[in-house]
Amino acid sequence: MSYTTREHLSLMHEDDSQYPISVVEQETGISKELLRMWERRYEFPIPARDTSGNRMYSRAQIDRLQDINKLLAAGYRPGFVVGAKEEKLQQLLQELPSAATAESNGAAPRQLDALLELIQHHEFADYRRQLRQELASEGVRQFVLGIAAPLQQDLARAELGDALPAFTCQLARQILLETLQFAATLLPLPNANGLQILLIDLPGDNRPLELLMIRTLLLSSGADVLFLGTEPPVEDVIECLRHCSTSVLQIAVSAAAVTPSNRQLVARLRAEMPAQTTLWLSGSGAEDIAEPSNEPVFRRLHDLLQAVQAWQNPLRET
Question: How many C-alpha atoms does 100 have within 13 Å on its Cβ side?
Fold first, then answer.
């Protein structure tokens, strides 16, 4: 028996229902061609077949594709997430800025829609001006959480779905980077005796915009954040730790960066960093790369910010 698209949509609440590729494309926004390519290249999703040989997908597969869509929109590579196990996908989802850092309802949809419309029409001068206005209105911290993080994901989703040309998304990201850099200059200078953090990522992460958002949020919490750029050479990191009064080496680790070579790199940093420096690990890959010790591990960015605030304002015994 065959069903129309409308009939299939009406049955989506049933866990054992099967849906044709046209319905999956409609619900997830992932094209039929891309679904077939993922099936060949990553062995997911592997559909069942009806009596006519047509591809049929389960509700669980559609839900997983929705999760994969969120991760792709956040900047993860298809080769890393499409064939990943469900447990790893859930770990990655917990790291997404929109979920990990949310402390309010975020930006109103019309604010983000207005920014995306300016991008779509290549009105980049107005786009830059609007970002500055949102920054002035929201303040640095809420601008990162409510504007920059969801906008980053919207741009990635638009590029993935061919809704915007790659060059358009790249220009929009660069202007967002510029705005975040400008936002950092608006923050008061940190206390000379306060917490100083050297923030780094690991080879293979390649997420400069997300790293800059983390840096800006840390700065907004009063920390003095040193930054050597993305994927700095380990020798530079060690030299910086030796010559600067750095209390914390904070490594942002996505699950994509958990590799044997990066495990060795972190082990070297543990062995060679000064005794007065504490190692913090944050991100979805933090637990996988940490040693069983007392070094703090932060799965959520919100927890990292709380740790900074606790360091800056320790509870006094009464």
Answer: 25
Q: List Cα–Cα distances, 260 to 76, 203, 267, in angstroms.
A: 19, 11, 11
Give me the phi and psi of 287, to 5 degrees please: -65, -35
In the chain, DSSP finds a helix count (H) and a strand count (E) of 17, 8
What distance in Å separates the CA atoms of residue 206 and residue 217, rounded to the nearest whole number? 19
Provide the strand spans (E) within 61-216. 196-201
| CB-count burial class (<10 Å; 0-12, 13-18, 19+) for 295 | middle
pLDDT one-digit tens code per residue, 143-156: 988 899 889 878 87
pLDDT digits (tens, 9 = 90+) for 240-264: 999 998 999 999 987 778 888 999 9
What is the predicted pLDDT for the residue at 150?
85
The encoded tokens of residue 229 equal 């750029």
Tokens of 106: 């975020």
What is the model's pTM? 0.66
Return the exposure string of 129-150: e unless at least 16 CB atoms fall within 10 Å of the residue's CB, then b. ebbeebbeebebbbbbbbbbbb
Beta bridge partners of 265: none
- Radius of gyration, alpha carbons of the chain: 22
Q: How far is CA 276 from CA 111, 199, 219, 224, 233, in A?
A: 45, 16, 21, 16, 21
